[in-house]
Amino acid sequence: MKLAIALSAVIVAVVFALQPANAVDDAPSSRMQLIEVEQQTPYLESFAGVTAGTATTSIIRRVSGITFSSQAYAQFDNHNGDGSRATWPIEVEDGDVYGISASFVKGPSFGIVQLALDGRPLGEPFDAYAAELGLEAPKFLGTVALAEGKHMLTMTVVGKNAASTDWLGGIDLLVLDAGKAAQPTPTAVATAEVGGSVPATLSLSLGTPPRFEAFIPGTEREYTASTQATVTSSAGDARLTTSEPGYLTNGAYTLAQPLQVALSKTSWDGPISGETVDVTFKQAIGARDPLRTGTYAKTLTFTLSTTNP
Length: 309
What we know:
This protein has no helices and 22 strands. The protein is mainly beta. The strands form five sheets. Strands 2, 4, 5, 7, 10, 11 and 13 form a seven-stranded antiparallel sheet that branches.
């Protein structure tokens, strides 16, 4: 059995391209803005569902005290811890990336508070309980990029210390300090390009040569034999064909009926690797077909081809 295929030379290339490393080290900005929260105009989102004026109604108020900056601080009275929010609109004078710190008020009736800026949490919840009323040292809450203009500072009392007698929240000063913003870690950047080429490939192999059982004279029967073809192609399409089966011959003698060949698959629309194709051969013998002693055979050619290499 003959095999007709076309194979190409193999070329594989791997290319590395390194670009010079570039260090990144930008000097931090020196912008700073101090915001007295109690001087801003607040508004309340209340979920208490109680009548105004009762002991459990949440309110926001300005409380005076000489120990605080500007001698006052903003206090959020959220007596029932219902998830109400106190919001203060603040004006950012210059757009920049800022390190943000807050001076919280603490005392025996203060709860655990969470600040947020434009809906984004700032730092972790702060437990403001203390045995005596006082001002916590400025607490760093993180780095945020802020555009110039109005932003919303929100306080929510999310819980309370078991020792606290109420759910109050208090804040004195908000500090925006570009000099304390977390700076990018200096880095060196390099790139590498790696690749490999695929050689043009058409590969076809056949399995064990097929062989029919012995033909029995005077008996009508269809004989079957089979083998497999293994197909590999890197082309955009591929087609498997066989030469005209014709007739099996034994020297000068030819069988009366033609050989039949069937392929389980004959075409592909893309690359394939090691796909198996079943090849089936059929030979019909009639009861009155003359058969000569010896071997009947025929050589077939299978071809794997492409129109889009």
